[in-house]
Protein 1
Amino acid sequence: MSDILISTRGLTKRFGAKDVLKGIDCDIRVGEKVAVIGPSGSGKSTFLRCLNLLELPSGGTVTVDGSVLFESEMLAKRDALDAVVAEIKDLKSGNASQEVKEHRQEAARLKDELAKTQDALTDARAKQKLAKLRASRAGSADSAEVDEASVNCERLAAEIEELKAMLAAVNAKIKQKRAEAKHNQDAALLSELIAKKAQAKSEYVAAKKAHAAAMKKTNKSIDEHRRNMGMVFQHFNLFNNLTVIENITLAPVSLNLKDVKAERRKLLMRKLKGEDVKSGLAALPSKLEIVENAKATARKLLARVGLLDKADVYPSTLSGGQKQRIAIVRSLAMNPRVMLFDEPTSALDPEMVGEVLEVIKELADDGMTMVIVTHEMGFAKEVATRVLFVDDGQIKEDAPPQQLFGAPQHPRLQEFLSKIL
């Protein structure tokens, strides 16, 4: 049996037009402690949330224990269709012409230069007003500063007019070349692209149907998946109207009651078929037993993190470090196979960080499989067995901590570490 617990292939996530994850391939093995580092906005937390399906990926595959939990090519097929549609549009409009492309690049450069020059003129006019105000207060009718500011404004205004004229000329060339390209349109290429579009559309429709079917399957197994994958967030997400022990036992009690209800329904269905199910029904735990068992587990875990005396208090009376330790206990109460930590110390005061990291270190020493998004480089060096450097939605480097921090290979990682170490 493979020791790979979680595997992703081609994992993507898109929010609107923004691609946050751009094809993540990653294997997480049983017992590994994987630290995920990188600049803010690089996709680290999104990657973590996609593992737990708190964020549904846009494409790719998520496999858990060898079973495919999520799989979809819909986004990739849609992108392929959009690309062909854009190609046809460019061909029909004349924008596919190489000359048009070159002139459009030149127009874009001129627009950028024009915008910068207009900003410079705005600043120059503000300085001119300030110079005139100073000259007025000094009672001087003639001021070198005013003259210099005026000359600068005139020069920039002349540059703007020149750039506008150049841009107009380039736009005229674009219009002319587009008309020529449309007149000399390649009919064979257009026919080929139309056929390609029909094929891409067919593949997209098929992928869309497959995605819908896969999502039905995923929705059925997602609760079981999340039972085996605990998650601790940046902000503790405790219910302030529940005591500490109520926060910890809420999920185990609810899910166990749901399981008992489902099992009782199965037994009763068998009874309707004439089977003897008395022993099975008698073996089902009562609600009181489920609650007491959950509380016993919660107390053991609270004692483990040194917070047994806080079992019956409300979260509002706890420090940030205590709340985060309770959040960790709440996840552990589900007896997960893997723990996901999303910057667990980022919302804490510096003096409280240590107590939370100590709990995570103890879990690591006990062999818990963990994936930790963190900015604590020292902690990553000490605890992680592997470190992933994520930037721009991609894993740029994946190596043991000694190698990644001691001899970084990717230029972007070298730049990142030079700023924080």
Protein 2
Amino acid sequence: MIAEAEQAKKALARIKAGAKTEELKSSTLVACLSKNSATKTATSVLNGVNSLLGGNKVNRLEKENAQLHREVDDLNDQIERLHTDMQRLKDTHARELNRTNEQHQQEVSNLKRLLDKAYRWFPSFKRFLNMERECLEYGFNEEQTDNLLNGQRINYSGWLHSNEYRRNVLANNVTAQVIMDAKRNLFLHINETPITQWFKEQFGIGQEQRRGLRR
């Protein structure tokens, strides 16, 4: 009986020892499982945060890209409107220029017809115009030319130019006057001498010719 009780105690001790071992294993397993679960949870949270942050960044970039596209479209529209306005201005300017040219040509044509009529109605009118041009070419100013064409005698000091001889001569206090002959032709005189003859005298052209004849 004593032997059987000892065996029962030993068996009970073995069972308790096994139970503690199993309990320790279970605790260790639970701890490991808890640790893995926490790690997975933290990883999931981090992945979620990263995904959330990444998604916000992508959304922001997409919005900025869309805004840039809208701005580019607005700029293209503005450029197109500018091109249209410039073309419209060019067309308007061309029409105005053509209209101005046409008006100018019409005015020139009208003036030419009036001049033709004036030449026919007043034959001396053309002679006066030619004499005005000659006086200005000789070197008289407009006021002096007007006085000459009105038949006035004027005093003149200054340079006179000869288109015939392509030379200038200094006139010192000479008198100038436009003379009309019996045929109503006009001639400019300097010191009561026709200006063509007066130029010859100033340039010594007649004297040179006479010296050549004497030789």
Protein 3
Amino acid sequence: MLLMASLAVAVVAVIFLFRQDRATLIARNFTEAKIAQIESLRAALTAASTDGRNGRGPQLQMIGREYGVMLIPVDRRPEIGQVPRGPALAPLVEKLQEQLGRDTEIRLGMRLDQPVVWIRLKVGDDGARSVWAGIPIRDTEAGEVPMRLLVTLAVLLAVLLAATFWFARRLSKPLADLADAVDKVALGKRPDPLPEDGPTEIARVASNVNRMAANLERLERDRGTMLAGISHDIRTPLTRLRLASEMSVGDKQSRTEMAADIDEIDRVVTQFLDFARGNPKEAPVRIDARDALTAIADKANSRGLSVDWAAGPDVICINTFPAAFDRMLMNLIENAHRYGKPPVQLALRRDGATVEIDVLDAGEGVAAADVERLKQPFVRGDSARGGAMGAGLGLALVERLAQWHGGSFDLLPRETGGMIARLRLPLA
């Protein structure tokens, strides 16, 4: 708004200056010699009228050509041009009326991009008839006034627009970079360091964002190191417990229950490790989603997690981090068995530029108000879906892995009862 207001003031100022310039040009033409020529013209018109000639038509044209003016009878055109306004033209009007009479009417007009001063001259001794005498301003620059105005305005507009664009870019680019960096931080990614220049306030914000991103990365790294150490320290005694239970516990049922508890603890530790990883440690691979889901379904069935899956005829390729993709689908299948009810099904379909992978169960489902809460770390759906054990990291881990793949994760109600865990991933 400020820039546009400044632009408007500049344009108005240029127009005013050119009006002043035109007024000066007109005034410069009306020298004493020009006024004497007008007096001579009036005398010639009076003489023509006194000689009995009507002063119309060819006679007026001949006199006009002789004096280099345009002559139009007032009775043919009572009004012509505009009354001169503004302080710049006031001295000229005063001078002409002083020389030609106080009742002399002055008008200002344009003819073919050339200023014309119209003076009403009374003809005859009694002044009964009048003629408009149009005097073109024939200065060498007179005909260039409109063009000069356009060129100057164009140059002024170009300079102001260039300055405005530079100023806007200087403000908006750091803000755009800042917004992109904040978006990456919101997704758990480390943004590139922001340049700490530009306006003082933006430079301060950029410096603080850089510091915040560095602190978050350090905290993420420290958390990963801590969890890796804890998992290592926990797994060593777990291995000893497993060995001791196999050797010293005679009751088969007790031995089985202890082994199940140890496996559960190991699974929780694995989830902690997976969630603690800030970025994938493997390179992305282009795969056929049908083949990948077939392998995952076979793996789940071999572990006693039955899955219904039938590959379609269409090839659907996606870019994945293989271990992360496998972990993501196995988590959803385990959750479907743990919190829902069989049958558990896998479904795959293309939706525009994305692919949808669904894991469906026939359990009681989840209330819509609990969906976002269940995707948070360390939140369990015990009250909603059966109270099974767990660390509350399964769905949070799935959402993070989906973001690694440039996709999203949703929990949706199933029309026939149960829940749909849906992954949306971009096609390769």
